[in-house]
């Protein structure tokens, strides 16, 4: 049967072996050169005394061509958006435009020092101001901070604002309500912000159970953290009622903006009752994921929370120039040194410029269209636990395939052989054996068809030869790794053999 | 595609959004721009942003040379456009690179192991304090006043909500932490002492003496390192329990303050309390070496509210820049690079001391020093700007007790002629300030 299922998208080819950089090191090799010193040489022993470092231990010594080859070879072992669809649900793996990279490296922007005088920082400040204005228009909120370095950092900032707000009313309150479908960062953040977490059950349509919320909502609850669309890709249709319930008891509505790619230019969280939300510039606004970061997690708020925003805040001064305002007595303080991941602001703004109002709307429509096209293509082949309409992502389950002993992770590993990155497995937790698929707007129909074909083919393989799927991937450099051994006796760094 | 899905129009897909909340107008954002227009817009902004100035600013963000291979490699799509390596079979490139990063950071900091990065030095320091609280079961922390002021502000934000009281210890005439005051401040409920070395004034702390004071009372020592290049020639804080470092100096552009690259390094016994991602070595089912994300039971996607931290996204691509930088300079180059920084700053400090007061002369320093002038540093700096020079960082805002003082920084990119020009202009301004002060006295005489 192995020949029957042809993977149209991928073929095996030679990839280079490459050891650790330390294994290539030998004394005398070098890839660096410094200019001759134009000031007097110093006696390091005299200047540093016992603080002088004698030796840099096992740091490598290699040549430039070895460095280029080393990292180039490593790079070829990665899957990437540039190679094909990356259907990770809730991760929004969209195309990362190269013009973003280009403009972020323009000298005056890349070399700007965070403490240079405001007079010579007007360019950077203008970028921050313009991006802020655009994000406020997109979210329908009133004020914003760009300081948080990532989504989870934005969540923390948002909850600190919530806490400061309640404190100003005389009671910080004790709890944060979080639906059982939420990302793990939500409860972890609530704990970091000093709140207790109370779980909120979803209803049979995969949405917040409004009746349950009404029962659980009281004056101890500071806020509800809701992701909309939620992690099932379902729009919370009663979001305005949810907001009303929260507000009636003095609580606030926090929206995790991880799935904002389904909403931009079609609806605005500020309009449907959200008080505070974060955005992930590395999801919705096309800044690259870079193998895990950097991200950027601006937090947008309604007027009532503005006094508490982290310092500094960008303001327009009386002479029309831009500046930072530090004197904000009610601020929660800083959440990061300097002003945030500025390089990501440049990229996100370039993305907004490249799209404009029409492009942003089209993007959202295409993202939702693509997800629904996949849903239609795989319906009946994989179990769809919730029939509620999908927005930008769709969640199936392995219910059919697990009867043959094949689980979501196994299907995902087999997908690798077909030339795709796996979808998100086993999340959200409310779906047993979840397959969470988000194609984004970037994928052309041809790529979506290849994906659907691959998923159908894998489903057939499960019926014909489940063991073959269980043993996947078959065509990668390495097979499945022993993760248990890695965690039991962690080897977290290289050491020379004779050590 | 609409037909395949079985709908008539794209609007049908958005019907779950209640009609009254559907946006029926265009967003008021700038119109769609062509690539050439986008490039032009940002080039204009760059011109308004100090392009072409010589700078003596450091203070937690350092201007070092970035070898061109860094950008050539990090812009490869396979690094740039990949996700967190949760699927190791298709992410060995990123995983092996992180493993090498962890190794080099451990080696440079003198710790047993390091994580795969934190947001930056400030949040890394705050996470280190929370880690110390978990390890010791104690609830307060002692912080050096010569720790980067913005790091202290961030820590203060985190600590307030974790109910961790902070005690601040001052510095002496050498710019170093006051050991006597420290001795008194550390108590039985102190989870950790957090210092910076080289500290915010650029002087190097006696880490061993500080470690002894902390450890005597059962507290951990956390050392924050903001200027990573110092590790090339300054003895690393081997007696520390946690090193919280900002690795921006290693090949990361200044970028108006970010993205940077925080890292935590620690002793093996504390690894399970460390936040952030970790890569470990293992084997596949054929016995072939490979790398995976490991010890995930510390993390939010598994432990939710019981996780060591809420951190998810880190600074992977920036860590890769750091990694390549460390590989380029390596064992010998890093030392030579650090030595040039040391020599430039020593020369500049000497030159400044002929015309103004260089503070904290009693302790060894790396590439930063504090110059006290009779005139206000803001006024001096605005005169320097006219000569396309960005002067030192005025300290009045954070350390009013130092009067008219500014923190100056020299790196391998600071030329002798830049130094001489800046010193000349400061000398001129000092000369005129002094004669202004002197005149009334002469009149009296």
How would you characterize the overall build of this protein?
The complex is a heterodimer of chains A (499) and B (445). With 499 residues, chain A is of the alpha/beta class. Among the domains of chain A are: 21-75, no CATH class; 100-352, 3-Layer(aba) Sandwich (Aspartate Aminotransferase, domain 2). Chain A contains 15 helices and twelve strands. In chain A, the strands form three sheets. Chain A has a seven-stranded mixed sheet with strand order 1-7-6-5-4-2-3, with helices on both faces. A three-stranded antiparallel sheet of chain A has the order 10-12-11, covered by helices on one side. In chain A, α5 packs parallel to α10 (342-378). The radius of gyration of chain A is 26 Å and the shape is globular. Chain B is of the alpha/beta class. Chain B has two domains: 73-326, Aspartate Aminotransferase, domain 2, CATH 3.40.640; 333-418, Aspartate Aminotransferase, domain 1 (Alpha-Beta Complex). In chain B, the strands form four sheets. A seven-stranded mixed sheet of chain B has the order 2-8-7-6-5-3-4, with helices on both faces. Chain B has a four-stranded antiparallel sheet with strand order 11-12-15-14, covered by helices on one side. Residues 440-445 of chain B have low confidence and may be disordered. The interface between A and B is large, with 190 and 188 residues.
Biggest pleated-sheet summary of chain A: 7 strands, mixed
Give me the secondary-structure category of chain B: alpha/beta
Write down the overall mean pLDDT of chain B: 95
- What is the topology, as strand order, of the major beta sheet of chain A? 1-7-6-5-4-2-3
The CATH topology of the largest domain in chain B is what?
Aspartate Aminotransferase, domain 2
CATH class of the domain at 100-352 in chain A: Alpha Beta
Q: State the total count of DSSP E strands of chain A.
A: 12
Radius of gyration based on Cα positions of chain A: 26 Å
> Unreliable stretches of chain A, pLDDT < 50, 5 or more residues?
none
User: Regarding quaternary structure, how should these chains be classified?
Assistant: heterodimer
Based on secondary structure, the structural category of chain A is: alpha/beta
Number of H/I helices of chain A: 15
Strand-residue proportion of chain B:
5-15%
Biggest sheet: strand arrangement of chain B: 2-8-7-6-5-3-4
In total, how many domains does the architecture of chain B comprise?
2
CATH topology of the domain at 100-352 in chain A: Aspartate Aminotransferase, domain 2
The portion of residues forming beta strands of chain A comes to 5-15%
**CATH architecture grouping of the domain at 100-352 in chain A:** 3-Layer(aba) Sandwich
Order of helices and strands of chain B: HHEHHHEHEHEHEHEEEEEHHEEHEEEH
Q: What is the CA-based Rg of chain B, rounded?
A: 25 Å
């Amino acid at each position: 049967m192995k020949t029957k299922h042809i993977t149209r998208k991928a073929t095996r080819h030679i990839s280079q072996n490459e050891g650790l950089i330390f294994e290539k090191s030998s004394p005398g090799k070098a890839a660096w050169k410094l200019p001759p010193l134009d000031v007097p040489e110093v006696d390091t022993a005299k200047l540093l005394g016992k603080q002088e470092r004698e030796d840099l231990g096992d740091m490598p010594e290699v040549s430039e061509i070895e460095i280029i080859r080393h990292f180039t070879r490593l790079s070829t072992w990665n899957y990437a958006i540039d190679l094909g669809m990356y259907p990770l649900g809730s991760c929004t793996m969209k195309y990362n435009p190269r013009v973003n990279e280009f403009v972020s490296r323009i000298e005056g922007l890349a070399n700007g020092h965070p403490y240079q005088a405001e007079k010579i920082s007007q360019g950077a400040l203008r970028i921050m101001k313009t991006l802020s204005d655009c994000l406020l228009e997109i979210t329908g909120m009133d004020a914003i901070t760009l300081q948080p370095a990532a989504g989870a950092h934005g969540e923390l900032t948002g909850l600190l604002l919530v806490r400061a707000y309640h404190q100003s009313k005389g009671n910080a309150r004790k709890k944060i309500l979080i639906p059982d479908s939420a990302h793990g960062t939500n409860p972890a953040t609530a704990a970091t912000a000093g709140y207790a977490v109370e779980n909120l059950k979803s209803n049979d349509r995969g949405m917040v159970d409004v009746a349950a919320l009404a029962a659980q909502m009281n004056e101890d609850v500071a806020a509800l953290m809701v992701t909309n669309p939620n992690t099932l890709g379902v729009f919370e249709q009663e979001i305005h009622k949810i907001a009303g319930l929260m507000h009636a008891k003095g609580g606030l509505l926090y929206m995790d903006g991880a799935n904002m790619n389904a909403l931009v230019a079609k609806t605005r969280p500020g309009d449907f009752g959200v008080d505070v939300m974060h955005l992930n510039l590395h999801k919705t606004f096309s800044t690259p994921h870079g193998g895990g970061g950097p991200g950027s997690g601006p937090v947008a708020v309604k007027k009532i929370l503005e006094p508490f925003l982290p310092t500094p805040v960008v303001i327009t001064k009386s002479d029309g120039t831009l500046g930072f305002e530090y004197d904000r007595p009610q601020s929660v303080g800083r959440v990061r040194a300097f002003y945030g991941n500025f390089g990501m602001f440049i990229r996100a703004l370039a993305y907004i410029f490249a799209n404009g109002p029409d492009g942003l709307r089209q993007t959202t429509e295409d993202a939702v269209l693509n997800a629904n096209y996949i849903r239609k293509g795989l319906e009946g082949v994989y179990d769809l636990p919730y029939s509620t309409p999908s927005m930008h992502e769709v969640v199936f389950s392995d219910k059919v395939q697990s009867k043959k002993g094949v689980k979501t992770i196994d299907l995902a590993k087999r997908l690798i052989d077909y030339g795709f990155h796996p979808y998100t497995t086993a999340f959200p937790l409310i779906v047993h054996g979840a397959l969470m698929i988000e194609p984004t707007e970037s994928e052309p129909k041809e790529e979506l068809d290849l994906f659907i074909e691959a998923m159908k083919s894998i489903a057939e393989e499960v019926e014909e030869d489940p063991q073959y799927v269980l043993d996947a991937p078959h065509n990668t450099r390495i097979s499945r790794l022993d993760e248990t051994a890695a965690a039991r006796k962690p080897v977290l760094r290289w050491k020379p053999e004779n050590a | 595609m609409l037909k395949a899905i079985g709908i008539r129009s794209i609007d049908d897909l958005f019907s779950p959004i209640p009609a009254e909340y559907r946006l029926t107008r265009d967003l008021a954002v700038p119109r769609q721009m062509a690539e050439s227009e986008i490039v032009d817009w940002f080039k204009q902004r760059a011109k308004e942003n100090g392009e072409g100035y010589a700078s003596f600013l450091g203070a937690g963000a350092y201007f070092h040379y970035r070898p061109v291979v860094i950008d050539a490699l990090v812009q490869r799509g396979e690094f740039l456009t990949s996700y967190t390596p949760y699927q190791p079979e298709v992410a060995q490139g990123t995983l092996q690179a992180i493993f090498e990063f962890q190794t080099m950071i451990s080696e440079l900091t003198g710790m047993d192991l390091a994580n795969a990065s934190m947001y930056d030095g400030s949040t890394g320091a705050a996470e280190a304090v929370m880690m110390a609280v978990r390890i010791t079961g104690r609830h307060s922390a002692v912080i050096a006043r010569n720790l980067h002021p913005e790091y202290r502000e961030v820590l203060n934000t985190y600590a307030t909500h974790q109910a961790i009281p902070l005690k601040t210890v001052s510095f002496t005439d050498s710019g170093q932490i006051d050991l006597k005051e420290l001795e008194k401040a550390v108590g039985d409920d102190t989870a950790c002492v957090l210092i910076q070395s080289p500290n915010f004034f650029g002087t190097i702390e006696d880490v061993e003496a500080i470690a002894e004071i902390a450890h005597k009372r059962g507290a951990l020592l956390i050392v924050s390192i903001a200027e990573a290049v110092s590790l090339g020639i300054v003895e690393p804080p081997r007696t520390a329990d946690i090193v919280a470092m900002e690795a921006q100096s290693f090949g990361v552009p200044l970028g108006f303050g970010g993205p940077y690259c925080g890292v935590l390094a620690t002793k093996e016994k504390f690894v399970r309390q460390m936040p952030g991602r970790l890569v470990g070595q293992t084997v596949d089912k054929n016995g072939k070496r490979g790398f995976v994300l490991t010890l995930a039971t510390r993390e939010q996607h598994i432990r939710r509210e019981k996780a060591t931290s809420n951190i998810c996204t880190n600074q992977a691509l920036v860590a890769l820049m750091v990694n390549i930088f460390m590989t380029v300079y390596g064992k010998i180059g890093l030392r030579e690079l650090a030595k040039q920084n040391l020599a430039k700053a020593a020369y500049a400090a000497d030159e400044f001391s002929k015309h103004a007061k260089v503070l904290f002369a009693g302790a060894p320093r790396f590439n930063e020093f504090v110059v006290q002038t009779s005139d206000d540093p803001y006024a001096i700096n605005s005169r320097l700007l006219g000569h396309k020079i960005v002067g030192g960082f005025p300290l009045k805002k954070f350390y009013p007790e130092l009067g008219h003082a500014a923190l100056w920084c020299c790196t391998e990119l600071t030329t002798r002629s830049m130094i001489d020009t800046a010193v000349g202009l400061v000398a001129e301004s000092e000369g005129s300030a002094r004669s202004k002060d002197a005149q009334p006295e002469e009149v009296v005489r």
